[in-house]
Every structure is written in structure tokens, then in C-alpha cells.
Amino acid sequence: MGTLYLVRHGQASFGADNYDQLSPLGVQQCTQLGRYFATKGRRFAAVLTGTLQRQIQSYDAIAEGLGQRQATLQLPGLNEYDSHAVIAAIHPQPLAKADTPEAYRQHFRILRDGLAAWMAGRTQPQGMPSYADFVGGIHDALARVRAVPDGDVLIVSSGGPISTVVAQVLGAPAETSIELNLRIRNSAVSEFAVNPKRLALVTFNTLPHLDSAEHASWVTHT
Which PANTHER family does the protein's record reference (predicted)? Predict the structure, then answer.
């Protein structure tokens, strides 16, 4: 039996023209996570990421802090859903830029509704897979994890896939993953005990590498 460390990417560039890019703080968060792994003597039998830039950059920063870089398997099934497409499927009019508290809250209210509609099959956001195919890509990645013969595995992904895994392991409804997703912090670690047949949740959404007064201001959600 090994452990799966399922990590959300560091802070990206919310509100910028290109969200899919780590902010300087996002790089620091993930580098610090790598340092934490190093202090614990963590070594990984396999490393998987999605194909999004922020996920790949997050692993690069983790590897820098860990002092050990290894080949990664990049799987589209670990990519995040397209939040703009999800929103546009139920709200075709452009949203105001989320640069005020109210605009920020409106963005996430509509996102919740859009995700629920996609999960229920009421919408099909442009350029995205069906929800069933989205889940299928995550299952494929987990099958690869269970097939690792020995040792721990690191996955660097995003809130959508991570919350989907947690909800399914707990036997919760798909809609539960929406609220889980909106609470996952940047560079947070969720741990699962793994054997060839199943995963068991050990911890969710933890930030042991930022658990100090020095790093309190590094905790972010978007």
C-alpha cells in the first residue's frame, strides 16, 4: 500500500487575461511545499500532472524545493474544467470583471449554477467534455496510480478533479464536489491510502508547508 498526494496547483492569475499562469506567490507556495516534502524524506515512485501550464509550473516549483526532479506523465484527464465555458452555457452575457467583492461573489454564484447544470446534463459547455467523460478521465488517472507497484505517487492537478475524487471516494453526490472545489486552497495537499483496488481518504485540503506565522499571508484560494 502506498500514499497518493493529490496537490492543487499554486495561485494562478485570477482576473488576468491569462489565468493559466502561476503568480509569483503561486511559485513560492509550491516551492515551499517541495521543501516540506524534502524535510519529510518524501520520494515519489511516479509523478502525474495535467497538461495545463499552471499545473506543470506547480510541479516544477515543487521539484525545485524538493531538490529532485523526475519525469512526469501529463494527462488531459487531470485538467480543470473551463469555468468561462461553464458560465457562458447558462449566462451568455459577459460578466463584469471580478475586481470588486460583489462581482467576485456573482462570478462564483453563477459558476455554482453552471457546474450543477453541467453535472446534471442540462448543458454542454462549448469545447468541454461531457461530465461523464470528465469523470472518466479522472478515473483513468487513478487507475494508473493504483497500478504503480510500490511507493508513493504525486499528482498535481486542480480543484475540479481533486474535489471529484474526494466526493467519489466518500460516496457523496456529484454536486458535493462543487462546494469542496470552492474551498480547496492553492498548493493544498489531500492524501489517500492506495491499494490496487481502492483509495481511502486520509486528509483533505491541508497546508502543512504553510502552517506558520511566517507563511500565514501565503494562504490563498484562487
Answer: PHOSPHOGLYCERATE MUTASE-RELATED, SERINE_THREONINE-PROTEIN PHOSPHATASE PGAM5, MITOCHONDRIAL
